[in-house]
Design a protein that fits this description.
Helix 1 runs antiparallel to helix 2. The protein is elongated and about 45 Å long. It is mainly alpha-helical. 64% of the residues lie in helices and 0% in strands. The mean pLDDT is 90. It has one domain. The protein is built from three helices and no strands. It holds the Pfam family YgaP-like_TM.
């Protein structure tokens, strides 16, 4: 599995994952007036964002042929 998520993409995914996770937990705690389904969707989105940022691989990117990870001078990523 080659990495297809670049550094900037990882940072954006990490930030969005943290925001989604925080809003999801705040919703479950009663601080935001969103439904339980919205909290669940945000929680799953947070896990996906953080997971793809941690592994450097996005399955949707692989299906669409998108690669934001630049190749290094040695040829490996």
């Amino acid at each position: 599995m080659d990495q297809n998520v670049g550094i900037t993409d990882k940072r954006v995914r990490t930030a969005l994952g943290a925001i989604f996770g925080t809003v999801s937990l705040a919703t479950l705690a009663g601080f935001f007036p969103l439904s339980g389904i919205a909290a669940l969707v945000l929680g799953v989105a947070a896990l996906l964002m953080l997971g793809t940022a941690a592994t450097g691989f996005c399955g949707l990117y692989a299906l669409l042929g998108v690669d934001t990870c630049p190749a290094s001078a040695g040829g490996s990523r």
